[in-house]
Amino acid sequence: MKVDAILLAGAKNHGALRECSTLEYEALIEVNGVPMIDYVVEAARSAVSVERIIVVGPEEWLKPHLKDRVDYVVEGTDQIIENLSKAIEVLGKEKKVLIITSDIPMISSAAIDRFVAQCEDREVDFYYPIISKEANLQRFPGTQRTYARLREGTYTGGNIFVLNPVVIDQAEDFMNKLVTWRKKPLKLSQLFGVKFICKFVLGRLTITELEQRLKKITGCSAATLVCESPEIGFDIDKPSDLDLIEKFMGQAN
């Protein structure tokens, strides 16, 4: 399967990373002297499953910096769904798109290709990767991630997704609420239902039940794929993440 890639680089540097850098956008913060976005661009460029690449972010800085390494640069906003819509408007809706956040500098072309290959096994509208806690800690010992306990195991989420762009308007309201309320359980219960949330909290929810609930709410089919590429889940949210990333990169060289 071939996909176009949307790289999200519009997040403002208003959080904990402000301690590390005063740059306006998180994507521009340097890791070992290189802006984070560069690592993600290089991985996407080298992936055989990726055709066109569009970056959504600060156009004034990105265009002269990235030059011909990407196909398009579009001015971003602070709204994820709006940024996706702007990118899809440029790319069209003829093929599925790969969405990648710009804060996962350990990502590789091999990890991208493995995930896209996994997506070929099922025909759905949305593909989301999860990584087991064991695989994550084996690859990145000492890291602190947010984990969810499902009946099949304990997992953390990835930061790349595959989406059928045809359904983005259909699921826009749900996706906006999910992003806005992702750290507010009481609000989330309004989307998924209290019984569903309780089952999740108790670790009794299965991957299949999660997929079925998402389809009932949005009308869009979804696949949650267990992925053995921990680098797609290692995002930089805080100064300690940045320190660990630089440490692991140094060990790899």
Describe this structure in words.
This protein has 253 residues and is α/β, with parallel strands linked by helices. The protein has one domain: Spore Coat Polysaccharide Biosynthesis Protein SpsA, Chain A (Alpha-Beta Complex), CATH 3.90.550.10. It is built from 10 helices and 11 strands. The strands form 2 sheets. Strands 1, 4, 5, 6, 7, 8, 9, 10 and 11 form a 9-stranded mixed β-sheet that branches. The chain has a two-stranded antiparallel ribbon with strand order 2-3.
Provide a brief overview of the structure.
With 253 residues, the chain is of the alpha/beta class.
Q: Give the name of the CATH architecture.
A: Alpha-Beta Complex
The major sheet is characterized as: 9 strands, mixed
CATH superfamily: Spore Coat Polysaccharide Biosynthesis Protein SpsA, Chain A
Termini distance? 31 Å
Strand content: 15-25%
CATH class: Alpha Beta
Order of helices and strands: EEEHEHEHEHEHEEEHHHHEH
Q: Pick out the low-confidence regions.
A: none
Gyration radius over CA: 18 Å
Structural class: alpha/beta
